[in-house]
Amino acid sequence: MDLGIKGKRALVLASSRGLGHGIAVALAREGADVLMCGRNGEKLAANCDAINKEGKGRAEWVWGDLGDADFVEAMVTAVDQKLGGIDILVNNTGGPTPGTTEDMTVDKLDTYFQSMVLRVITLTNAFLPAMKEQGWGRILTVASSGVIEPIPNLALSNTLRPALAGWSKTLATEVARFGITSNMLLPGSILTDRLEQLDSAAAKRTGKPIEEIRVQSEKAIPVGRYGRVEEFAATAAFLCSQPASYVTGSMIRCDGGAARSL
């Protein structure tokens, strides 16, 4: 299938590794020009080199920390200078530390709200006027399956990410007439460093070997295994595509059937 995004300009947040990196690669392989951002310049540079050697889409990078107060301004400037505009925005953020509701201090709530919710909303708002003017845009927000089924010991994530679900759905209704879609993509257990962190935390909390934690986790997934980044990224690329122009206001799961809710 031709996704119809050759030459489209995409900003992918938190793309030095993991899901963000996978999405950037998938978009570039469809011919998009991708601006990657994150806090590890060495990894970002290597990622861009690899994409550019493939010769399908162009990739550049910019250093950026979602926790910084000037993050939005820096991204807007970088997009203007390196891409000359934007067609696709992939809102991807790191996850907060594991813990219970009692671990949710005021400082933690404020810190992660700023980086996981506030920056996402204000950055999207900064790019909306240009998308409206050109009559085309794709806004994809990567969250967590905890939005529809809270995950044990991830109280901060379970609390903050649903705020983005309400925002994304509302936004979709407001911008649909401009040819802009707004969707959320919810990963389940995808093989990334983040999953390694969560499995390690579970092993420490329960006193079980990490191998046993993984076996138990995979048994609970109908597909019977953890997902691959490439599988998740392919789903993201479709949601950013021209053929997906009638898909908006949706939350798409990529979790191997793990979520038990309807």
Automatic annotation (TrEMBL):
The lineage of its organism: Bacteria, Pseudomonadati, Pseudomonadota, Alphaproteobacteria, Hyphomicrobiales. It comes from Ferirhizobium litorale. It comes from the Bacteria. Belongs to the short-chain dehydrogenases/reductases (SDR) family. PANTHER family: 3-OXOACYL-(ACYL-CARRIER-PROTEIN) REDUCTASE, NADPH-DEPENDENT REDUCTASE BACG. It holds the Pfam family adh_short_C2. This is SDR family oxidoreductase.
